[in-house]
Amino acid sequence: MLTKKLVTALVLWFVSSMVWAQLPVLRGIGGDFTLTSSRGDSVSLSDFSGKVVLIFFGYTNCADICPTTMAHVSRFMKRLPEDKREQVQVLFISFDTDFDTPEHMNNYLSFFDPSFIGLTGQPEAVAHVVEQYGAEFTKLAEEKVTTRYKKLSVEDTQIERPGYLYSHTAKIYVIDPRGRTRGYFYNGTPLEQMKADVLSLL
Amino acid sequence: MKVLLCVLAIGVFANPAFAKSTEDYDVLAAVYGLFAQLDAGDPLNEEFYWLVNQESVQHAHHVLKTTVQHVDASSVKVAVSFEYQFLIPSEKASPARYLEQVIVFTKNALGLPDKVVSIQTLVDETDNFNSVFIPSKDQNLIRSLLYDWTYRINEPGQWSLNHLAPNPDTFTSAEPDVFGTDTYLQALKKLNYVSSRRTIQNLVIKPMDDAYLVSFEYIWHGQPQEGIEELARQSQKWKVEIQKDRAVVVEFEEKYLTPVTDLGAEIRC
Fold first, then answer.
1. For the CA atoms of chain B, what is the radius of gyration?
2. Which of A118, A138, B134, B230 is the most buried (most CB within 10 A)?
3. What domains can be seen in chain B, in order of their start residue?
4. Closest CB from B10, B257, B258 relative to A14
5. Average per-residue pLDDT in chain B?
């Protein structure tokens, strides 16, 4: 009987220590910011205090990692119990300030999950947030290109509005309810692990 | 009972406290400091016999490996393997020697390894080829400084850094409101960590003009008194000068980088 209790206690300690080990507070990166949302208003990270926030830096013209990552996050959101889903906010910050208007981002993100919020702003403001989070983006060439084949939610079906291509960080930043950066996911992180990590923060 | 032992074993080895590096930077500082002294040709002890009556020769001791064997309140026992080179003026190369020694340091009043009290030579082999002489004194002095510094900032309430980086004008910290080594240590102390452990990674010591550019990263685990463990990664860039057989930080710059917690998340599109 005593052995059984000890085993249970040790297993609980082991599991809790593993969760604790996976998500330390990442010091020196992150913090509050304010940008323009895809819904037209100004949004700050602190507006989501009390929620877990997942931040991804990308752009809608991206042909590969951005849509696949957003699709992965969308699948993750569907795995969460409904009451917990409301406590998780996904923010997609676009550094393609030329191309990604709030309306355009709204349409793009609605395809994945209507609760996702896109954020953009003046190039300097976005660059500042990118730096705050230690993310990176680099324009691949000065020539604009069209991604006509990718018509997911792009509203301008009539015009082929070309944009730039970028190389960029592909991390999903995990922010806890107190606004602290706690780790990263990526589009290969198992959904069950994402779920366990996020639930451990709520 | 077997299950119990199994769970205990997995739990202990999976615990992050066991996964972290446990370099003894105070011991490394003492070892590199000692070999910098030997590079200067000071025999210090009869067990450093290869230096005796060799005044006209240049010496270099390249430390290969250090392993702390025993630590208690008054002493530290450390095994060191190193390559000894000497250069006779007018010759370009000379045979080197590979040595393994066990060195015992006593601790001073501050608890830092200090004087050498015992040396045991386990291996002393002469290379059967000649080597080009590579000086090591400056490198050993710089490494001793770096390890001493790292040990000190892990316990910011106890030490001073003034003698290691005397110029506050060229001190750029990643912490807010820092204007030199004093305020730097105060800022670190305010974090109120019950344990703080930095690990040095990617160390590069590059000569430049009359000084050295020392660059490396700290992986820093800190446990606040209350709350969750913190993890940071910092880029460190120092300009170090050798002044009267001492290494001194004359320019200091650090900044936070994103810690690597999952290699998959490091991919770029």
1. 21
2. A118
3. 23-135 (3.10.450), 137-260 (3.10.450.50)
4. B10
5. 86
